[in-house]
Design a protein that fits this description.
- By secondary structure, the chain is an all-alpha fold.
- Helices cover 65% and strands 0% of the residues.
- The protein contains eight helices and no strands.
- Helix 2 crosses helix 4 and helix 2 crosses helix 7.
- The mean pLDDT is 92.
Length: 136
Amino acid sequence: MADAPLYGFSDTSFQAAGGIEGIRQLVDDFYLEMGTLPEAKIIREMHKTDLTESRDKLTLFLCGWMGGPSIYREKYGNINIPRDHAHLAIGEAERDAWLLCMERAIAKQNYSVEFATYLLGQLRIPAERILSASKK
């Protein structure tokens, strides 16, 4: 498919995700999954009861991470994913729960199969970085 977009370049991923509103919906669905899946109970308990700030941070982070505006940095400063999660005990079960929530949230979006597959694959990278950092 010569006309297929090359995700990960410029803002192609950000646009494929529906811009900030699409990413906000993805994040809302992600936290809905986290709050309902029994496998995710362990990671839900790592969050505050009020998820307002967590939702905002993940939305803004994903916007920049997908090639959109760097709103996270403007509002919260620079992010170092492993360092910023170092205070949490994250093992394989927690990583897998996070990815399961994200996989189910992605499935609820109106994404092409190609983009959904690409996005989940890319999200495995920071999930693995957090896991690796917690083992040190």
